[in-house]
Amino acid sequence: MLTRHQAAEMLASFDRVLILCHRNPDGDTLGSGFALCRAFLNQGKKARVFCNDPIPEKFSYMIPEQQEDFVPLHVVSVDVADPALLGPNTEQMIAPYSPIELSVDHHPTHKQFAQELFLEADSASCCEIVRELLREMGWEIDAGIANCLYTGLSTDTGCFKFSNTTPRTHRIAAEMIEMGADHTRINKVM
After folding, report:
1. pLDDT tier at 13 (50, 70, 90 boundaries)?
2. Which residues contact 116 (CB under 8 A, 6 or more apart)?
3. What span, in angstroms and rounded, lies between the C-alpha atoms of 164 and 160?
4. Rounded to two decimals, what is the model's pTM?
5. Mean pLDDT throughout 115-124?
6. Nearest to 53, CA basis, from 68, 73, 76, 33
7. Distance, C-alpha 80 to centroid of its chain
């Protein structure tokens, strides 16, 4: 398993990244995926999020403008504890590009399926982990990324009611609000 620094170095070296989310997508898998996607785009790199199931309309505010002529060089999964959660068509879809090189997750039940794993089981959401990786890489967070990260925090903590909510969760949520997350609207759609 990678350290945070190793995972951040690996991500920072990537371009043309396909980011995989789990089926029946919730705010954490989509928030993690679109936050990373937007961060790559802000760095002048190419990235796209893929989910085997349709993205619920209520999460459409996270989706950045799609890029044309996208051929992935790297594949990363976020908030996926088991490859079966990726869906039946994912393996065939990514086969021409690359194996899944990195999995970023917070589930203690994670079944190792990627070449590398960065797991923080004490994190309330995968979005907490993505925030820490962005910090480690020195990549800035704009309001669009803040919306994505706040969504995942809110989703996986039941709007901060669940016992997995920690002081760090609240600190990151406050930071996302300071960076422009529309927390009132996001909490209403949860």
Report:
1. very high
2. 1, 2, 6, 7, 10, 101, 102, 103
3. 8
4. 0.96
5. 97
6. 33
7. 10
